Amino acid sequence: MIAGSGPRSPGGQAGGFHPDDEVVLDDDPTRDFEWLCRRPLHHRPFPRVGIEAEYVKRRVDGVAVFDALVAVTGITDDGEVEILGFDAGDSEDLSFWMRLLFVLRLRGLHGVKRVLAFSEHEGLAEAVEANFPDAELARAREFPGD
């Protein structure tokens, strides 16, 4: 498990990172990944949320299949960026997006005003409206750092 020394550290009550926290990663990165995908998100609002999906190819019983890997980041009003979670699925449809955003909301994601997506995603607009009715969906024109 990830452990920290500050009050907002992964081991603390609020569940978030803080730049002053000492973060120690476990020898098992799978547990760190699982914690990151399950940690509470109620410690502060994230008015901007970024969603990026990439397809990766893998073999199942000798057949090549593609899975969508999705990373979700949150940006605070102060410009701090946190990884909010990851998900994977065999398709990016309405049910995939509904589940992903519903779980983020259940974990405490709040204050969302804009969701930035780097690609067109079928069903994402409907899922954003259902889970964060005050948020707008915007298409990002370029990747951060480009």
Number of DSSP helical runs: 3
Please state roughly what percent of the residues sit in beta strands, choosing from under 5%, 5-15%, 15-25%, 25-35%, 35-45% or over 45%: 25-35%
**Name of the CATH class of the largest domain:** Alpha Beta
**Shape from CA axes?**
globular
SSE arrangement:
Layout: H1 29-38, E1 48-60, E2 63-75, E3 81-89, H2 94-106, E4 114-117, H3 124-131, E5 136-139
Parallel strand pairs: 1-4, 4-5
Antiparallel strand pairs: 1-2, 2-3
Describe this structure in words.
The protein has two domains: 1-39, no CATH class; 48-139, Nucleotidyltransferase, domain 5 (2-Layer Sandwich). Helix 2 (94-106) runs parallel beside helix 3. It contains three helices and five strands, in the order H-E-E-E-H-E-H-E. The chain has helices at 29-38, 94-106, 124-131, and strands spanning 48-60, 63-75, 81-89, 114-117, 136-139. Residues 1-15 have low confidence and may be disordered. The chain is globular and about 45 Å long. The termini are far apart. It has 146 residues and is of the alpha/beta class. Strands 3-2-1-4-5 form a five-stranded mixed β-sheet. Helix content is 21%, strand content 29%. The longest helix has 13 residues, at 94-106.
Concise overview:
By secondary structure, the protein is an alpha/beta fold. Helix content is 21%, strand content 29%. Strands 3-2-1-4-5 form a five-stranded mixed sheet.
Provide the descriptors you would attach to this structure in a database record.
2 domains; Nucleotidyltransferase, domain 5; single chain; globular
